[in-house]
Write a structure and sequence with these properties.
There is one protein chain. It is built from 9 helices and 17 strands. The chain has helices at 2-18, 24-30, 49-56, 144-147, 217-220, 230-240, 354-361, 468-483, 499-519; strands spanning 70-82, 101-110, 115-129, 157-172, 185-202, 205-206, 212-213, 247-248, 262-276, 281-294, 303-304, 321-322, 326-339, 455-458, 489-494, 527-533, 539-544. An 8-stranded antiparallel β-barrel has the order 1-2-3-4-5-9-10-13. A 4-stranded mixed beta sheet has the order 14-17-15-16. By secondary structure, it is of the alpha+beta class. A hairpin with a 5-residue loop joins β6 and β7.
């Protein structure tokens, strides 16, 4: 068994060496990184096109999963039964095919970057024989060796013809890459279930002696038999057997499920690797183990313990019999082909971080508008949903003019910058419908904020961490406040949908004010603290306080027991 597997892998290595220079131009194309055009809608199935349209319109951050190719493969290899009879071939007759070979064909489809399913059909022939004599068949009327009329020790042998159909779940192990673009080798594991049809025959008659029983006495009665090496007995048996396998092996009472075949439900598992040959072809090496739940796949249900001394020769050893189930080993090598039009290659060959890495390093690759900023507001056109903003107007992360009070009137047009929600909707000038408060005749204090501008601090989703860009923005705000010592600044945290959003809104405003107070030495009383507003999520907006606008500089957290980042 070990020698056969070694020869198979040696053949695989030679094959890999012979194809090392194959399709070099295709390999360069495959491994360069950006595996497909994320904006190509023709690659997207109809049920995912709404997501793709939102992505192209900058309304959703993730592109839709593309349609991927199927894999069709064919393999061949070595089949062995791990059971009561040793697995090996009879090479005594060169004109006969080796009785431990199999082949398979499969169809595989990816459902994601890790998980795929595979339908596989395998057909093979396994054979074997024991180099130790056996007598456990005595007293078992259904045993073919007793039915054949043997009265002395025999050497169990078999040839099993099998066909297996299985559905397997395959898990890819190594296509998530952070420091390289693509794989040349794909490693995977799999498990599945299916059905097995098998038929077992034994070689119990010697055709060279008119189909009489084999004469095993010459081997078992040899004076030095108990000391003969395994190699010597193997040679004697190869010379003796004719390799015809003319006798039915022992079968279950309900054996004939289909003609001479026995059916069993099976479980299998295995490991494998694929090597990239070109854009559409891969080389596959795999080992699969099939659990049959059956003890007659090798035609013998009893496994006899070997005799340990010459004193046991001729003694019955029925009390030494043990029983277990047979497994099938299949080691194979094959070629796979990718099939399918308007599709990307199978997803287990693709790196799922391709999109994000390419978007970070080369945004122009999928949207040429990222090179330009038509309205000069600092937001590239590929992200700007308001690309006609007047010069000098403060904008949010989408490039639209700031609207602090959310009344639909941009701040640069709003004559009532803070319109209470109860007073909305506002008119065309941004003034609410509430009447002016009764005037006390007191003069209105002007804020005196001069060049203190409005702005917005952006945060990552579910985070209150102040990044480097935000710190730079706050440094500029602090400088403006120092030059306008009578100015107060209002910070407004957005998020009021639930308790988590409210607490996160408070955390962000609190973090920004603490940064200005602790790091930049701005008096806390110059800030107005607001949170839980219905504005742009993941942002804290700020503006210079207008005349008469006031509020606390610090407020208690709404839900302090909620732990957030």
């Amino acid at each position: 068994m070990t020698k056969k597997i070694y020869n198979l892998f040696l053949f695989s290595s030679l094959l890999l060496s012979s194809i090392a220079g194959f399709s070099q131009e295709e390999k360069k194309l495959v491994y360069k990184g950006n595996c497909y055009d994320f904006a190509d809608t023709s690659l997207i199935p109809n049920n995912r096109k709404p997501q793709q349209q939102d992505f192209l319109a900058n309304q959703y951050d993730f592109p839709a999963k593309p349609r991927s190719q199927w894999e069709l493969g064919i393999s061949g290899g070595v089949v062995n039964v791990s059971g009561d009879v040793r697995s090996k071939s009879i090479f005594n007759h060169p004109q006969k095919a080796i009785n431990t070979l199999g082949w398979d064909i499969h169809l595989r489809k990816a459902w994601g970057y890790v998980i795929s399913t595979r339908l596989q059909f395998m057909h093979g022939i396994a054979s074997g024989y024991n180099y130790q004599e056996s007598e456990g068949y005595w007293g078992h009327a259904s045993n073919p060796w007793q039915m054949a009329g043997y009265t002395q020790d025999v050497y169990y042998n078999y040839k099993t013809t099998m066909s297996e159909l299985s559905l397997e779940l395959v898990a890819n192990l190594n296509n998530l890459k952070f420091h390289k673009a693509r794989n040349k080798v794909s490693y995977y594991v799999f498990a599945g279930t299916g059905g097995l049809l098998y038929n077992v025959m034994i070689d119990a008659k010697d055709k060279n002696k008119n189909n009489a029983n084999y004469d095993f006495i010459a081997i078992t009665t040899s004076p030095n038999h108990i000391y003969d090496s395994r190699k010597t007995i193997d040679k004697q048996l190869r010379d003796l057997f004719d390799g015809e396998y003319e006798t039915n092996a022992e079968r279950h009472e309900n054996a004939a499920w289909s003609g001479k075949n026995t059916y069993r439900t099976i479980l299998n598992l295995g490991v494998g690797l694929q090597y990239r040959l070109s854009k559409n072809f891969t080389l596959q090496i795999e080992e699969k183990v099939t659990h049959t739940g059956d003890d007659l796949v090798d035609g013998q249900r009893w496994q006899e313990r070997p005799r340990v001394s010459s004193t046991t020769v001729g003694a019955k050893t029925s009390s030494s019999l043990t029983r277990d189930f047979d497994n099938i080993n299949y080691v194979s090598i094959g070629i796979n082909m990718h099939i399918g039009n308007h599709s990307v290659e199978p997803l287990w060959w693709m790196n799922p971080v391709d999109y994000s890495y390419n978007g970070l390093s080369r945004p122009v690759a999928h949207n040429a508008k990222c090179e330009t900023d038509t309205d000069g507001d600092g937001i590239a056109d590929c992200f700007d949903t308001c690309n006609d903003t007047p010069s000098g107007v403060s904008v949010d992360s989408h490039g639209c003019p700031m609207d602090i009070d959310g009344d639909g009137i941009p701040d640069y047009k709003d004559k009532q910058l803070i319109t209470p929600t109860d007073c909305q909707p506002s008119d065309a000038d941004g003034v609410g419908k509430c009447p002016d408060p009764a005037c006390c005749g007191l003069p209105i204090k002007v804020s005196g904020c001069g060049n203190v501008s409005n702005g917005s601090i952006q945060f990552l989703s579910n985070s209150s961490f102040i990044n480097v860009s935000a710190k730079s923005q706050l440094d500029n705000l602090a400088a403006s406040m120092r030059s306008n010592p009578d100015c107060k600044v209002v910070f407004v945290g957005n998020g009021n949908g639930n308790k988590v959003e409210q607490q996160r809104s408070w955390d962000r405003v609190n973090g920004v004010i603490n940064y200005l107070v602790d790091k930049l030495q701005i008096d806390r009383e110059r800030f107005i603290f607001r949170y839980g507003q219905a504005g742009l999520m993941n942002s804290v907006e700020y503006h210079a306080a207008s005349a008469g606008e006031d509020g606390p500089s610090n407020v208690p957290p709404p839900h302090p027991n909620i732990k957030l980042k």
